[in-house]
Design brief:
The structure holds two protein chains of two kinds. By secondary structure, chain A is of the alpha+beta class. In chain A, about 20% of the residues lie in helices and about 30% in strands. Chain A has helices at about 5-20, 40-45, 65-75, 95-100, 150-160, 185, 235-245, 250-260, 295-305; strands spanning about 35, 50, 55-60, 75-80, 85-90, 115-120, 125-135, 140-145, 165-170, 175-180, 205-210, 210-215, 225-230, 250, 310-315, 330, 335-345, 350-360, 365-370, 375-380. In chain A, about 50% of the residues are buried. Chain B is α+β, with helices and mostly antiparallel strands. Chain B has one domain: RNA polymerase II/Efflux pump adaptor protein, barrel-sandwich hybrid domain (OB fold (Dihydrolipoamide Acetyltransferase, E2P)). At the A-B interface, helix 1 of A face helix 1, strand 4 and strand 7 of B.
Chain lengths: ~400, ~130
């Protein structure tokens, strides 16, 4: 063990930052730790708090494995108030988002959300996010915690003549995720709307514990569930009510292991300002959008047609060990890629990882080496997602 | 935290415990260490026969969120490892002083033993770390 486990815990924490967000955003300023409206609640529950993208967040309450299992078998409540929330208003919201986003808003309708990436001109990613159409002139957008300021600046820089106003309401509102196979049943007594008929990516405004809330059928765990947003002042009321349903509190540790099993990209890992959505396996996300110009279109449409020299794959480790982010991949001693996210899968009880490899090594069944602390272990390309239950 | 520290063990400042039996030292990680690491999912056991000095890395312990090193609390030869934790790494969490032991060392420099910490000194050290 390390001499000072708190220091080492710091290094664990540091390591943890690395596994969860891009190093490029870990500046000293991020150590001005911001608290979500539920900070005291987490501490009372015995959570281990870590700095994540500048926020003091619960990484685990008792055990990441247990929290993971609770979400896979029952339901878990996550505080995701560190994520960003923007409101877009104005007559040009749809054309503006069409210009920013790689996905096609023609596929969207009122009361529905859409996952997308906004990219730079060279096709690499500013952020991946979800926006919801509340009306053709009003959208709500949820962005990554580590990118809130960058996104807000980027978006405003692109507005030009578009008649759109963007507001950052992140710090006025609390966001929770309620995820798991029993989430429908457990939330039902707390709401004044039938959520069981709410289809994936649709949302409603309703009362949750008699409090006005935005509830969307979205998530980041690979389970059915909801993402919820409401005013800060109701945070403890709603959090406690959701826990009283029998669901468990779940931290960022479980959030990461769940999303990795479900193969959802995490910004700073599978998507960065040097990786395009096509390379990250999000070919389906980039739409042709004929007659519509969008930032990054030229590069992305070309990549969509011609392919890329590297591509994201899922790997299992054939030997024993745990694969972590940034471990290098070799074929006959020649470096062919690196691990973007890796770890132990609590559901599958084996090591799983996502990796960017040269495309010629990306077919299912291909075997190559992973370097773990100067040793080479065998890994194999496997179908993804590793696990999803939706 | 309701952590246990058996009084009959010696402790290293790097959070390993040592149980001496003749010149054989059984080694594991303390309850405090397992608690700090969280769910342990893999232990890369050291090589039997390896002769390592005090402070050298003996093996790696992987928890869900991080990898940590286990250091040699004493100089010596690794004569046995706990094969059970290869299949059940969670023993290191649930029974750090029992089923979760990690390795046995044939101690080559018994003078080093007196430099290990008593349970009182070790608990003082943890309290300092927690402050």
């Amino acid at each position: 063990m390390s001499k000072n486990l708190n220091n080492s815990n710091y290094s664990i924490t540091q390591y943890y930052y690395y596994t969860l967000i891009s190093v490029e955003f870990m500046t000293k300023e991020d150590l001005n730790e911001i608290k979500t409206p539920l900070y005291e609640t987490h501490v009372k529950l015995g959570a281990r708090m870590v700095n994540f993208a500048g926020w003091l967040m619960p990484v685990q309450y008792e055990s990441i494995l247990k929290e993971h299992e609770t979400v896979r078998t029952l339901a878990g409540v996550f505080d995701i108030s560190h994520m960003g929330e923007f409101i877009f208003e104005g007559p040009d919201v749809i054309p503006f988002l069409q210009y920013l986003m790689v996905n096609d808003l023609k596929l969207l309708e009122k009361s529905k959300g859409q996952y997308s990436c906004m990219c730079y001109e060279n096709g690499t990613v500013v952020d991946d996010l979800v926006y919801y159409e509340e009306s053709p002139e009003r959208f709500r957008m949820i962005v990554n915690a580590s990118n809130v300021e960058k996104d807000f600046q980027w978006i405003n820089k692109q507005i030009g003549n578009f008649r759109v106003k963007v507001r950052d309401v992140s710090k006025e509102r609390c966001r929770l995720a309620f995820q798991g196979p029993k989430s429908d049943d457990l939330i039902a007594p707390l709401v004044d709307t039938d959520l069981s008929t709410l289809n994936r990516f649709y949302f409603v405004f309703c009362n949750l514990c008699d409090v006005p809330a935005f509830i969307a059928r979205t998530g980041y765990t690979g389970e059915r569930g909801f993402e919820i947003s409401f005013e800060n002042k109701y945070a403890a009321t709603i959090w406690n009510a959701l826990l009283r349903t029998g669901a468990g509190a779940a931290g960022l540790g479980a959030r990461d292991s769940l999303r990795l099993e479900a193969c959802y990209c995490l910004y700073g890992h599978e998507l960065t300002n040097s990786i395009t959505p096509i390379e990250a396996g999000l070919n389906w996300l980039v739409k042709p959008k004929e007659g519509i110009d969008f930032i990054g279109k030229e590069v992305l449409i070309h990549q969509k047609k011609e392919g890329t020299s590297r591509i994201l794959v899922g790997l299992n480790l054939l030997d024993k060990g745990i694969i972590r982010e940034n471990y290098k991949l070799f074929n006959n001693g020649v470096e062919i890629g690196y691990v973007t996210s890796g770890g132990f899968s609590p559901t599958l009880k084996k090591t799983i990882c996502l990796a960017l490899v040269e495309t010629k090594y990306s077919s299912i069944g291909t075997e190559f080496d992973v370097e773990i602390r100067n040793k080479l272990l065998k890994a194999k390309v496997v179908p993804t997602p590793f696990y999803r239950n939706i | 935290m309701d952590l246990k520290f058996p009084a009959d063990l010696k402790y290293a400042p790097t959070h390993e415990w040592v149980r001496m039996d003749g010149d054989i030292a059984t080694v594991g990680i303390s309850d405090y260490a397992q608690h700090k690491l969280g769910d342990i999912v893999y232990v890369e056991l050291p090589e039997i026969g390896a002769v390592l000095e005090k402070g050298n890395t003996a093996c790696e312990i992987e928890s869900v969120k991080a990898v940590s090193e286990l250091f040699m609390p004493l100089t010596g030869e690794i004569v046995e490892t706990n094969g059970n934790i290869a299949d059940n790494p969670a023993f290191v969490n649930s029974s750090p002083y029992g089923e979760g032991w990690i390795m046995k060392i044939k101690v080559s420099n018994p003078d080093e033993i007196k430099n290990l910490l008593s349970v009182e000194k070790y608990q003082e050290l943890i309290e300092k770390e927690e402050d």
